Amino acid sequence: MLAPELFRRFSDLAHSRAGIALKEGKETLVESRIAKRISALGLADAAAYADYLDSHDGEEIVQFLDVISTNFTSFFREPDHFERLSEEAARWRAEGRERVRVWCAASSTGEEPYTLVMTLHEVLGDSLDWKLLATDISTRVLDAARRGRFAEDRLRGLDPALRQRYFTAAPQGPGETPEWQFRSPHRERASFGRLNLAKPPFPLSGPLDAIFCRNVMIYFDAETRQGVVSEAERLLRPGGLLFIGHAETLNGLRTGLVLERPSVFRRR
Ligand SMILES: C[S@@+](CC[C@H](N)C(=O)[O-])C[C@H]1O[C@@H](n2cnc3c(N)ncnc32)[C@H](O)[C@@H]1O
C-alpha cells in the first residue's frame, strides 16, 4: 500500500489541480489506478511516478487526473431528472422560446449528454435553436463521448423505441464486439470541450436554461463545490435549473438557488 507521505503527494496534487478530495483510506484505490501510468511510462514505482509528475507537470497531469477520477455513468441515470427536464422543455416550447442552451458539466463517456439530447429532441424536435454543451476534465472520456459509440451492454435497459430512433449498429470488424453509434444529426446537437470545474470562472457565456452537474461534486471539497455553485448561479438565466446527483447536496454552501425538489435547484 502507498506510504502515507507518498499518498499525500498524490492527494495534494488531485486537490490543487481538480478539487478532488482523496481521503485517507483511498491509498489502495490510488495505487491501483496509477499502476497503468507507471507501467505505460516504464517507471519503477509510485515514488518515481510522483517525481515524474513534478517534473513533467503539463503533459502528465491530465493523464493522472484521468486515471484517478471515477468515470462511472449510464444512459438515463437517475431518470427522474430527465422527466423533470422533459416537463421544462415542454414549457419552453409552449412559451415559444427560440433558443435553449443546456450544459452537461461532467459528461464522462457520453451517456449523460446523449441522454440529454434524446430527452430534448423528444420534446423540442427540430423546432427551435437548441444545443447541448458537454464538458469534462478528462480528454480520454471526451474523446470517447465525441465518438458516440457504445458497446451493446451500455444500451441495456434503454427504451427500444429510443434505441431505434437514436442509434444505429456501427460497422463491425471480424472479432469485434457489437457497438451502437449515436446517430447524426442528433449527435451534432452536442459539442464537447475540456473544462476544469475546480478552476472558476468558467469560460462559458450564459444565459443557460439548465445545467446538469451530477456525481462530480461528491469528489470535491467545500471550497471547490462553492466555486461550482456560484458559477452555475451566474450562468443560469432566471428560472433556469441546476441538477446535481442524488447523493449530493448544496448544504453549507452560499447560494441564492432555490431547492425545487431534492437534487433540483432553480435560479430565482
Ligand atoms: C462519476 S462521473 C459522472 C458522470 C455523469 N455526470 C453522471 O452523473 O453519470 C464523474 C466525471 O467527473 C469528471 N471530473 C472529475 N473532476 C473534474 C473536474 N475538476 N472538472 C470537470 N470534470 C471533472 C470525471 O472525469 C468524470 O468523467
Architecture overview:
- The protein is α/β, with parallel strands linked by helices and 268 residues long.
- It folds into two domains: 4-68, Chemotaxis receptor methyltransferase CheR, N-terminal domain (Chemotaxis Receptor Methyltransferase Cher, domain 1), CATH 1.10.155; 80-266, Vaccinia Virus protein VP39 (Rossmann fold, 3-Layer(aba) Sandwich).
- Helix content is 41%, strand content 19%.
- The chain has nine helices and ten strands.
- It has helices spanning 4-18, 27-40, 46-55, 57-68, 80-94, 111-124, 139-147, 160-166, 222-235; strands at residues 99-104, 129-136, 149-151, 167-169, 179-182, 190-194, 208-213, 236-244, 258-261, 264-266.
- Strand 7 (208-213), helix 9 (222-235) and strand 8 (236-244) form a beta-alpha-beta unit.
- It is globular, with a radius of gyration of 20 Å.
- It binds S-adenosylmethionine.
- Residues 18-20, 69-73, 77, 106, 108, 112, 136-138, 141, 196-198, 214-216, 245 line the site of S-adenosylmethionine (SAM).
Task: Please describe the topology of this protein.
Blueprint: H1 4-18, H2 27-40, H3 46-55, H4 57-68, H5 80-94, E1 99-104, H6 111-124, E2 129-136, H7 139-147, E3 149-151, H8 160-166, E4 167-169, E5 179-182, E6 190-194, E7 208-213, H9 222-235, E8 236-244, E9 258-261, E10 264-266
Parallel strand pairs: 1-2, 1-7, 2-6, 7-8
Antiparallel strand pairs: 3-5, 4-5, 8-10, 9-10
The structure holds S-adenosylmethionine.
